[in-house]
Write a structure and sequence with these properties.
0% of the residues lie in helices and 28% in strands. It has 75 residues and is mainly beta.
């Protein structure tokens, strides 16, 4: 059993970046059916080298409130 603080891989979602922008490259992909908690996304090259990473928290929906999306960065 992994420790409470261990990251667990859930998916590897591939997508192709086809063109650049003046300030860099941009790509978009989607993941469905996520569980509440802390999440980490790592962007890797085809060879598996990490080139970017972000952390965020998924919170359970509160039916009494209008859905809102907020990002929090962790150190």
């Amino acid at each position: 059993m992994p420790s409470r603080d261990a990251w667990v891989d859930t998916d590897r979602i591939a997508y192709q970046v086809v063109s650049g922008r003046r300030s860099g490259y941009r790509g978009v992909t989607y993941k469905q059916h996520v569980s509440p908690g802390r999440w980490r996304v790592t962007v890797e090259t085809e060879a598996g080298r990490p080139i970017g990473r972000t952390h965020f928290t998924v919170v359970a929906e509160d039916p009494a409130r209008t859905p809102a999306f907020t990002t929090h960065r962790y150190p």
